[in-house]
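STRUCTURE REQUEST FORM
Protein name: DNA replication and repair protein RecF
Source organism: Fructobacillus pseudoficulneus
Requested output: structure tokens
Priority: standard
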Amino acid sequence: MELSQLSLKNFRNYDQAELNFQSGINVFLGENAQGKTNLLESIYALALARSHRTKTDKDLIQWGQSEAKIAGRVTNRFGKTPLSLSWSAKGKQARVNHLDQSRLSTYIGQLNVILFAPEDLDLVKGAPTVRRRFIDIEFGQMNRLYLQQSAQYKKILKDRNAYLKAWAQGKQQDQVFLDVLTEQLITVASQIILARRQFLLKLEEQALLIHQEVANQREELRLAYQAAVPVMEGETAEQIAANLQEVFQKNADREKRQGTTLAGPHRDDFTMLVNGKDVSVFGSQGQQRTAALALKLGEIELMHQETGEYPVLLLDDVLSELDAGRQTHLLLAIQDKVQTFITAPSLTEVARQLIKEPKIFLVKAGHVKVEE
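Status: completed
Returned output:
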């Protein structure tokens, strides 16, 4: 899978931009605050219909303008597909082959991307919400059903929490209606938990091999899913639902007092274990970075396994955060395999030695030109 063309209009600090990319490695070079990361953000948004830097869509519209648009042409094994995304006072509009998409779940997956930025080290040592978001974004690109289930779960959870909040405030509520919401939530939750566990098992399989390579076979990486209920190998969604039912019954009075749902996928987590120990607690910074790198490179292979296509890789100023050994593993892993976009003030010595014929774009104050 490749992004061959990209056009921007009134996006962030870009009035207008038209870019053509090569299949291999494309590099955006420039000083800080010139617009390099904005270009990566536009590719990410084109793929996922959302920014990785802000939750507020109007932040993407250039100051003083009323609308913004990004468009691109994706090439995959089925042919070429034009995509576009626009923001205005009317909201967000996504198009595939120039046709409006009423649901984002039908749009996402046309262009698969993996972003690796310095803050992705928080995957190892950050809050559980970072790791839940990681699963939802990456697995959601590979599995449209999971994307739909996640959206359904969030809607039911919102309704249930609103009902519980009213209960906690002393307003008389209908127990039967709460039971219906609980049953609906448990049904979807059990499907999500099972899907997440299967995703992490597959990701572990890929990341384990990469991690052993980077760590010179001295360390073993494992991923442990932590759900509201233990999930055993071979367990079905129905069995998980039955176990969840017990948890919800146990929490029933406390939820009414606290006005919120106390268990479910919205509170789950996963742990990265190196040689059996939680690397976020017992690992050195080098071990944490190796685990994060292995996870990201494992994603690339898993996405290829699941979709038949390699994703587009976005590296936002990440090379300078890795030592020479980890830079080498990263660049050799993607060379001649994954279309890659790199942002950096300048290329490191390792990158200049390893990257074969990069296409270099010079970025300055929202203007881009190809290096001669």
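Reviewer notes: The longest strand covers residues 2-11. Residues 229 and 243 are 7 Å apart (CA to CA).
Form closed.
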